[in-house]
Amino acid sequence: MPAGNSPVFLGVRHHSPACARLVARTIASLRPAYVLVEGPADMNDRLEELLLGHTLPIAVFSHYRDEQRVATSWTPLCDYSPEWIALREGRAAGAQVRFIDLPAWHPALAEDGDRYANRYADAEARYAEATRRLCTRFAVDSVDALWDGLFEVTGLGDADGSGAGGEPGDAEDLRARLDAYFALVRGDAQADPGDRAREEYMASWVRAALARAEDRPVLVVTGGFHQPALRALSALPAPEGDGGTDWPSVPEPPEGALGGSFLVPYSFHRLDAFTGYRSGMPSPGYYQQLWETGPAKAARGLLHAVTERLRTRGIRLSTADLIAARTLSQGLARLRGHPYETRVDVLDGLAGAVIADDLDRPLPWTTRGTLGAGTHPVVVEMVAACTGEAVGRLHPDTPLPPLVHDVAAQLARLGLADADAPVTLDLTRAEDLSRSRALHRLRVLGVPGFSRVSGPADGADPVFSEVWEPEPAARREAALIEAGAYGARLDEAAAALLGERVHAAGPAVGALAGLLFDAVLCGVGPLCEDLLVSLAAGVGQVGDLGALGEVLAATLGLWRHDRVFGVARDKLLGAVVGGAADRVFWLAEGLHGDRGVDLPRLRALAAARDALRHAPDLLSVTPQAAAEAAARISRDPRAPADLRGAAFGLRWALGVPDDPGPVVRALASAAVDTLGDWLTGLFAVAREEVARATATGGDSLVDVVDGVVSAMAEGDFLTGLPALRQAFAFFPPRERERIAEHLLHRRGLRGSARSLLRTSADPLLQARARALEENVIQLLDRHGLGAPR
Prior knowledge:
The chain is α/β, with parallel strands linked by helices. About 55% of the residues lie in helices and about 10% in strands.
């Protein structure tokens, strides 16, 4: 132990059982006056709350919001987190315990975007070159395998402190090895500005503790990456203005910013690196066993957990399989020089004994990150068994944000608190509309408990009822606490979150249209006005015809039909409708050169058609001017074929149809596949007009197309068939049946039109098979091998 008032620095890996045991052993032997811990200094006044009898894992959830940025952060703690052991054992030993890191909202923690979400993000991942060299030197695949072999199974041994063979573990040896490891990881690399700011702040706490402690020990527990810098910074003379024995001041959020911290229940699923958390350790279920029972029993426990999970999933493991897995994992441990099987030894042994298939990707525990799509199902279950199912619970005396109480009161008042069956709501009744709005606000905030299975999809959807089904609400308390960052009341919180998304969407009017309907469903009136002002200002600058059509369709539907949510005929909605429809014609007339079918731009022309039909007074473009613009587009050879067809259909829908015959014949003679694209555009905008003309008899568009297609050569027909099928897919089944009946009648044939539409084989496949047969016959005839016809 150091002499005088030199501090004792323990560099740890977050969520490491070996480091947690070292912290506990050091506190017991050192009996320090102060224990300083990496963590948010603004929680120091609330350590009593943190040390209530919670069931771990829990986390400190911090939030911050101002006009420039929004930040949320979690500081997770589980039974084997060294930081938690430092707080708990330091308090039990009579030491004064303090968090010494900057608050979560501070810009220093925002240098790396991922650190917003996780204070204890793995520092080695930010300085990966050193760990890569170490992995190469020790012939392991990942940092986690390296760490287990160096420390977890060779550290302080079992939970009672005994090492391999029952001998006491050597704390001094473990600390020396940790110091050497973290010195190599840090090396001579320059820390980023955020790390430097944090380390300078933590060093000021160390100097203050030393000044207050006089000759009594001071223990500093931080992530090992910070330890070398803190050791050096703490040895320097205090800078001018340093507070001496006064604790450093805790930075306050800027004026006008909103922020705070609450404790939330956490879970092993959220703590696992395989599910996306950048923690120091993956597989928390395994490391919980390692903490409680030591490496020998943890290895056997992991084998048992994987076996039980696979069997419950219907994957049978024989006794021979388990003997082979156990033997293989023990052999791998000896080969790799491990005194006990590590997590990777056990998993490798199981994979080798159980998985007989060839794997097309590395096993996930050989890398870092989430499981990828296509991972072998047995591997997925093995990883899940390592995760564990622990879920934390807060002590009943834990303060909660006001939103939690507001939601509980609202759900009770609306009769939704104990719903265990589907809830059907009639949106035309005031009481059910209030219940709908509450449920939508919870949905927008991401609070589990109910899932909407049916209801209006947009403002034009003529549906006036909703059905919500109860769902598991295991994370409801944590989600509500986290949602409390947005406001004290449910309506206020939902409005704030939607406002944040509006700000993030910026000029993306397509995203704003979706947010508008969410705002309408939530009933947050003032926010709807802000959204509409943003939309009205943005539609005149949109360059994407498809996105513009999405906005126009959404706002026009609300303007026309919304008698349920109360925004029909709204002036701001009308301004968006008029501006978007005018912009559609301007963009469509200037679109050239694009080939193929673009369904979003066709929907934009259809939305403009509806605006001209149902809200002509909102547009500066008159129906006559729109028809003239459509004529120019339909005749422009540079315009895409589908857009020309949509413009042709728009004129038809506006009551000024042109003769389709010359256009159809010209398209078929030029390029047969463009005929299908042109028809797709036409049917997207004027399907009803085409169906009506077909039903009245006489020469119709369908007759013209039938004549052109019937005259096509076999090869041309096959080329154009996919596009033609896509075009006629716009007709619903009943209208397709009428068209088939018309074509049978045109040929003087009798038969079932319905049977033509319900063939047992794909017509395109049949056409290709017929063409293949014809080619084979021609080839046989050419060589004199064909049978007489």
